[in-house]
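Help needed: design a sequence for this.
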């Protein structure tokens, strides 16, 4: 027999409140104490209660539409897992809370990028928008969305964007510091860094963390060779090849994401370099590609699916409260260095050369 799907009355019994209260919570209504709201949402999750979005809309509950805005570059391949992991986490949370989710890829270099995002908000009657970098850093865009009475949750925001909306992310500066410390402890002293697109503040913060680690060890942080990529495999490959042609190449190459690190690894193989004996390479994000390349990449894990879920939770809470105010919430999630085979101790010869 097919198990009976839980009903709103089941949620009411489980949470110990009336059916009307459950309905008010699910529809983002006012006049519900925070502890009661949390108890109802916990019962929704425990019972795996699913709301029919179409029925709710017909009943006057509004569009219940959230939008996830992802940066794209029509001239290069997308950073696919980063986007899909955020989308999967957000979608799962939307299903559990009765929201619909739409995803839009917007070219971050387009002159009308803000207008494209605002068109999505208006045309789809979105109640909330999840912005990812670099849109999450764009204060003008965030303000324009809020003027349309739409809530914003920012993923990994930096700069002024972090002070204008609820957000979620890891401590990117600390992540860069931790991966650099791991390499320094292995004897590396000559570093290069492949960053992301200009204006991507999360990547810049990872570089800041690397430089802080060098400074604490008495090394010159400005001696780091910094090249700007675009988060794609191709840019990692091209820029790494450029580094290999330098008279004094690095012993440790830190990349702002895993795709660029995989590209750098491919370029190293093409040059016949022994990774990690002659060169240690690290990524960032801990996406599946970091495990399937050879050697597997040392990287920094950030919980992308949980970041997507938390962004939806932040929007759902704002919608339930029914207001926008300057008391923004920021959820800092944990990160960790994942040590794999792409990094090794600097050999005595390399250590002496880089001293």
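Sure. Designed sequence:
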């Amino acid at each position: 027999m097919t198990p009976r799907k839980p009903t709103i009355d089941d949620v009411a019994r489980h949470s110990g409140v009336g059916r009307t209260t459950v309905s008010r919570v699910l529809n983002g209504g006012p006049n519900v104490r925070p502890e009661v709201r949390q108890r109802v949402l916990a019962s929704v999750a425990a019972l795996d209660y699913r709301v029919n979005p179409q029925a709710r809309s017909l009943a006057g509950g509004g569009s219940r539409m959230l939008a996830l805005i992802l940066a794209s570059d029509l001239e290069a391949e997308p950073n696919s897992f980063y986007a899909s992991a955020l989308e999967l986490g957000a979608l799962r949370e939307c299903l559990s809370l009765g929201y619909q989710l739409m995803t839009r890829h917007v070219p971050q270099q387009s002159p009308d990028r803000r207008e494209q995002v605002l068109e999505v908000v208006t045309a789809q009657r979105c109640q909330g928008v999840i912005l990812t970098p670099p849109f999450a850093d764009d204060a003008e865009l965030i303000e324009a969305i809020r003027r349309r009475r739409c809530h914003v949750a920012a993923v990994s925001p930096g700069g002024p964007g972090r002070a204008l909306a609820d957000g979620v992310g890891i401590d990117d500066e600390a992540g860069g510091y931790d991966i650099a410390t791991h390499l320094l402890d292995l004897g590396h002293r000559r570093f290069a860094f492949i960053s992301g697109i200009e204006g991507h503040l999360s990547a810049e913060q990872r570089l800041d963390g690397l430089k802080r680690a060098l400074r604490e060890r008495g090394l010159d942080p400005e001696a780091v060779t910094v090249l700007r990529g675009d988060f794609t495999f191709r840019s990692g490959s091209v820029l790494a090849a450029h580094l290999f042609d330098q008279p004094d190449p690095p012993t440790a190459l830190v990349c702002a994401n895993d795709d660029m690190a995989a590209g750098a690894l491919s370029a190293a193989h093409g040059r016949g370099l022994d990774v990690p004996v002659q060169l240690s390479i690290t990524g960032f994000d801990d996406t599946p590609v970091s495990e399937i390349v050879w050697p597997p990449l040392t990287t920094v894990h950030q919980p992308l699916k949980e970041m997507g879920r938390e962004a939806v939770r932040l929007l759902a809470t704002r919608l339930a409260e029914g207001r926008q105010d300057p008391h923004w919430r920021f959820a800092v999630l944990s990160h960790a260095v994942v040590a794999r085979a792409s990094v090794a101790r600097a050999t005595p010869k390399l250590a002496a050369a880089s001293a």
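The first strand starts at residue 65 and ends at 72.
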